[in-house]
Design brief:
alpha/beta; seven-stranded mixed beta sheet; about 40% helix; globular
Length: about 190
Amino acid sequence: MMSNEDNKLFLKVYQEADAQIQDDGEEDPFPAYLEGIDTTLAPFCPTSALRVLKALRMAQVNSQDTVVDLGSGDGRFVTAAVSEFNAARAVGIESDADLVQTSKVLANQVLGQDPRVEFIEGDLLNLPKIVHDVQWSVIVLFLLPDHTDKFADFLLHHYRKGARIVSLVFNLNELPELKLKTSDEQDGIFVYEL
């Protein structure tokens, strides 16, 4: 875990981002349906900064972990994994170029130039080409249940090798092999582990 000052900085930066998103949402209450924004797999619905910390704490992220966030939005899980839990590496994969750029800016505000953090613009349906040969120990995703099958092979491959899977809002009951370790249904956090 990082110092209390680092924790305050993460919360400050991402709570300000939350406030900006809230302001933007009041201007357009249906951002998931904006032209030009790909919401095929899931809309961009940022998780509050406090909920990010709670989910990573529930997954017991630590300095030995290599974390990937599928559909990383503005990068808050990636940034928190490194800044708050000292993860060895964290990668966010996002299809929206503007969100990738926002991720880099926000992460830099919290961490400066930290080589443990990386954001990749890419199509999640091409995961093997984007993140091949990496052994992820924590996988974070917010995925509509209708699309779980598209990621089943990827998730099960890493799960069988010991990865913890953090699913937000929706459980992963469509994959019966996954064993639920802990959850907070009220906050929509589901952690799976062998």
